[in-house]
Design a protein that fits this description.
single chain; membrane; SLC25A32-like; repeat; transmembrane
């Protein structure tokens, strides 16, 4: 089994576990990002408080709206990303070694090469999995969109009464989201937000660049020549992954907000100031009607969610890689012993 396949499978497994742990945070964050009316913004509320509000008003299941396609998307996304990342990285390392034999370089790949490798892998991942994430965003924000028309009827009810009212969300599954999106925007609708998402390839690229740089420095300090993260403890990988993701998230967060707004349902009855025709139209209207602060809505929640998810993913992924290689090496040793016995 090749390193690319092992890393792809391990990445998918790590991504699923990280998603299960952090999904409620992701749901709250998506709702924060797609809140378009400044007068209704709840950015000042704490993340835990907003989660409690969702549970109280809509039921705890809404914190996991879109979980099924999200898990499928995570497995596909992480699997595709890590597979192509390892594939491109192996080729980059082979090229560097070939150059070393010609007397150029030291045989290792630098930060720029790591950045390019991650960018290529991320671009392939985005183009292949974007439709899944559009559906996930629709399902995470469905309740918010569906309540808007009901508020016109409930507006005459005193606020203190509304606080005790629990509105059950209408049935809305994956098939419903697919059909709604197709009828609204056709086949191209499944690639909504692909431009800012492609630009956001810089997020995992920056993340991996920082991760590889810190990993290389730590191994050099210890005098280790082991490949990858071999020899490091799970907690050390956890910390490296968390720090790398923190840096990448702070830099690219505004694009994440634009992407979420484009992928959420563009209701026809909303204020035209909050209805976007494309990436640049969304950026222009957000600046004009909401100010620069709109690009950082829910950032605190996102930092907690993405950093925790990335740290768990890196840790689990590396442990799975070690486990798979250990099993494969053991099997190879057993096969070798069997062949030796037969040859006697």
């Amino acid at each position: 089994m090749s390193d690319a396949v092992i890393n792809g499978v391990a990445g998918a497994g790590g991504g699923i576990i990280a998603q299960l742990i952090t999904y409620p945070l992701q749901t709250v964050n998506t709702r924060q990002q797609t809140e378009r009316d400044p007068s209704k913004s709840n950015a000042g509320d704490g993340t835990i408080k907003q989660m409690c509000q969702v549970v109280k008003q809509e039921g705890w299941r809404r914190l996991y709206g879109g979980l099924t396609p999200s898990l499928v998307g995570t497995a596909a996304s992480q699997g595709v990303y890590y597979y192509f990342y390892q594939l491109f990285r192996d080729k980059a390392e082979a090229t560097s070694l070939a150059r070393q034999m010609k007397g150029v370089g030291d045989g290792s790949i630098g930060m720029l090469q790591s950045l390019v490798v991650a960018a290529f892998a991320g671009s392939v991942n985005v183009l292949m999995t974007n439709p899944i994430w559009v559906i996930v965003t629709r399902m995470q924000t469905h309740k918010k969109a569906s309540i808007s028309s009901e508020n016109l009827v409930l507006a005459i009810v005193p606020d203190e009464v509304l606080e005790d009212v629990v509105v059950e969300p209408p049935p809305y599954g994956t098939i419903d989201a697919v059909q709604e999106l197709f009828s609204e925007a056709g086949l191209l609708g499944f690639w909504k937000g692909v431009l800012p998402t492609l630009i956001m390839v810089s997020n995992p690229s920056i993340q991996f660049m920082l991760y590889e740089a810190m990993l290389k420095k730590m191994k050099k300090k210890r005098g280790s020549t082991a490949k990858g993260a071999e020899g490091l403890a799970a907690f050390e990988i956890f910390l490296l992954g968390a720090i790398a993701k923190l840096g990448a998230t702070v830099v690219t967060y505004p694009l994440n907000v634009v992407k979420a707004r484009l992928q959420a349902k563009q209701a026809l009855d909303i204020d035209r100031r909050h209805h976007y025709q494309g990436t640049w139209d969304a950026i222009r209207k957000m600046i004009r009607y909401e100010g620069l602060a709109a690009f950082y809505k829910g950032m605190r929640t996102k930092i907690v969610q993405s950093v925790l998810a990335a740290a768990v993913l890196f840790m689990v992924k590396e442990e799975l890689v070690k486990a798979v290689k250990l099993v494969l090496n053991r099997d190879l040793r057993l096969v070798g012993k069997s062949k030796a016995k037969l040859s006697r």
